[in-house]
Specification:
Strand content: under 5%
Number of helices: 3
Largest sheet: none
Helix content: over 70%
Order of helices and strands: HHH
Structural class: mainly alpha
Radius of gyration: 21 Å
Number of strands: 0
Shape: elongated
């Protein structure tokens, strides 16, 4: 079960305030997780990997 569903039930039963607070808190948590992932990623290495994949793909198809 997702966090927003549990917050929906615990705050006001199945009321609209529980639904909105559950959706907002779930979105906030996912945003924080994505920020952590994005800031910890080595973007130079990812760009090199993408470049090598593109070069490998274009060489295998005979594209100059």
């Amino acid at each position: 079960m997702s966090l927003d569903f549990h917050l929906e039930l615990s705050l006001d039963g199945f009321s609209i305030s529980g639904t909105w607070s559950g959706m907002t808190s779930g979105t906030t948590i996912w945003t924080l997780i994505f920020i952590i992932i994005i800031t910890r990623c080595d973007w130079d290495m990812q760009a090199q990997k993408a470049s090598s994949r593109i070069n490998m793909l274009s060489n295998s198809r005979g594209i100059p």
